[in-house]
Design goal:
alpha+beta, Jelly Rolls, three-stranded antiparallel sheet, 17 strands, Gig2-like
Length: 501
């Protein structure tokens, strides 16, 4: 394990133009208000949701115009599929989530079984990405960093479980670990790109600096319910996910044709139209975290909805339908397909979607998902295990940490190299130098004056060239001839954006 000496960060010699914030047509570059993770979720902050403006009713009419009959037929078929899937999930529980040992990444048979499960369920676990000793060492290092810097913010404020830390030594070293970078590339290889001219590289992971969690037994403050990251209203908006037609088949009523693993349609997406705390300016193929503790179901851990494409289709179509009779009138028959029809008068309601926040879901707004039954715990994880879930996967956490020891993770998503991601990386590099929060997150001084923050000299001398590139600190090898031409073009473009050209 690396022996670290506390030191303030020093100036790094950035390439030409690298200090200028990038601007793109699709993502906002304005600084966000000061805050914490509760800013992202009305259910955590207690913020009352306001009705959406009438333009959303016009949007809904346009989305399904000319396809109303097919959308209705697709909706009824979807409800039948959800009933069947709910029974399967209830029977299998946590065992429905595929697993693979890091040492088996090259085992064809085991990889194939894992791939099939991942594609269907949208979530998976890679065991033993780093050693337990190393992962526990990172937790100890993070705890010392927090103790040395009592100004560190977190949520809940009185007894934090999630810390507003982005550049602690533990996080930097974990993101840079070669095993983790290899795991991210492996997971992203399960996506495909139908547009052969699209500029994207899944073999060059890009670092997205996120928070860390150290949740203590008994905590009920970080009671994060079912939600989907990457914006909310943007999923319906034409200048949001509509830019790539990501969900166009769903809005035509052909949800069975929706492919959640197609990457090229997501490249033009704007998922952060409102510059809010729930927006994300990067294309994260997978949300993910690296475990720093031994944690089992009910012990303050992750819960996921392993329905992926069907659940996505449901929450996107839900705003177009209304029940003809309430549950108090007809009881269990409330969920029957014959009780649901297209809205008589199109409303502006997008259940659980609020501009600037994540997409939240619950039993009342999304009754057919059966969230009480379909939100399953991930199996027990050990320090060094990596858990990843598709960017459209519904997920949440235990409302109460009923375990006897901490539930600790570092949030480390898997992001491909794209033009938009390189633009974000350029902006994020500045926040690394200054010790301020990553651009997508609440602003403020952050770790700018924290003791023990790693110097850039240390980082450049102690992480691999691959990790340096993932942080935007080193030039990509654009001269490689063992990669497809479009990937080589992506490396060239990234070098231009990052100022290395």
């Amino acid at each position: 394990m690396l022996k670290l000496r506390g030191c303030q960060i020093q100036t790094i010699a950035l390439p030409v133009n690298a200090s200028r914030g990038a601007t793109t047509a699709s993502q906002s570059t304005r600084s966000k208000p000061v805050g914490d993770i509760s800013s992202v979720f009305p259910s955590l902050s207690g913020t009352a949701s306001q009705p959406l403006p009438p333009r959303f009713a016009d949007l809904k009419r346009r989305l399904i115009q000319g396809h109303e009959e097919q959308v209705t037929h697709g909706w009824h078929h979807l409800l039948a599929e959800l009933r069947e899937e709910t029974g399967i999930i209830k029977a299998l529980g946590s065992s429905i989530i595929p697993e693979l040992a890091f040492g088996d990444l090259n085992n064809v048979n085991k990889r194939t079984a894992f791939r099939d499960g991942l594609h269907k369920r949208g979530v998976g676990i890679i065991r033993g990405v780093v050693s337990e000793q190393e992962a526990l060492g990172w937790k100890e290092l993070a705890e010392r960093y927090i103790q040395s810097n009592p100004s560190t913010k977190g949520f809940p404020a009185e007894k934090p479980a999630v810390y507003e830390l982005y550049w602690s030594p533990s996080q930097i070293l974990a993101r840079a670990h070669p095993n983790l970078l290899r795991t991210q590339s492996f997971l992203m290889s399960h996506w495909h790109c139908s547009n052969k001219s699209a500029r994207i590289s899944t073999s060059h992971p890009v670092i997205y600096a996120d928070r860390l969690r150290i949740r203590q037994p008994g905590d009920s403050g970080f009671a994060l319910g079912p939600h989907v990251d990457g914006g909310s209203c943007e999923r319906w908006e034409e200048n949001g996910y509509g830019r790539g037609g990501v969900y166009s088949e769903i809005f035509k009523g052909n949800w069975e044709n929706y492919d959640p693993w197609e990457s090229s349609c997501r490249l033009p997406v704007a998922s952060n139209l409102y510059n809010g705390p729930g927006g994300c300016s990067m294309f994260r193929m997978f949300q993910g975290w690296l475990s720093m503790s031994l944690t089992g179901p009910g012990e303050g851990t992750l819960k996921v909805n392993p329905l992926l494409s069907k659940a996505t289709a449901y929450f996107l179509l839900r705003p177009f339908f209304q029940p003809t009779k309430s549950s108090s009138d007809i009881g269990l028959a409330f969920l029957d397909a014959k009780n649901w029809q297209l809205e008589d008068q199109t409303t502006s309601v997008l259940q659980g979607a609020i501009p600037s926040n994540c997409q939240e879901l619950n039993e009342t707004l999304h009754p057919h998902l059966g969230l009480e039954d379909t939100m399953v715990h991930i199996p027990q994880v050990r320090p060094g295990d990596y858990v990843a879930w598709h960017c459209d996967t519904i997920h949440g956490v235990d409302k109460i940490h009923a375990g006897k020891s901490d539930s600790s993770v570092m949030y480390i998503p898997a992001c491909p190299l794209t033009e938009a991601n390189a633009e974000y990386l350029k902006r994020q590099r500045e926040t690394f130098v200054n010790g301020t929060p990553s651009p997508d997150f609440p602003s403020g001084l952050g770790e700018g004056e924290h003791l023990g923050r790693l110097s850039t000299d240390f980082v450049m001398q102690n992480i691999s060239i691959g990790a340096q590139r993932a942080m935007g600190l080193a030039k990509y090898d654009e001269g490689r001839r063992d990669i497809p031409p479009t990937e080589r073009q992506m490396l060239e473009k990234a070098n231009q954006i990052l100022g290395f050209a």
